[in-house]
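Appendix B. Chain record.
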Amino acid sequence: MVTNPTVPTLADLVRRPLVTEKATLLMENNQYVFEVIPTATKPDIKAAIEELFEVTVTAVNTYNPPSKRRRFGRFVGNRPHYKRAVVTLAPGDSIPLFPDL
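Structure tokens predicted for this chain:
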């Protein structure tokens, strides 16, 4: 069976968790922030998070931040495009982003 390399799998949709001040404060409300690929849809993100972390997702909110300008010497361009997803989990579920060391 040949798979299409342009169609991402569920594991490829989620790039990384975002750990910022705001994201850390949202963890208290059982909400987690992830960077996802720009073409990911809310049902795809929900399925990927549920499959990767074995939790129950109740809501997914997405945010496409505007592109920012970037200079490299005399050349001007834009930063790479990304998409944020705020995932709300069911009560009692959690994602261990910081494993105990």
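Further analysis of this model is presented in Appendix C.
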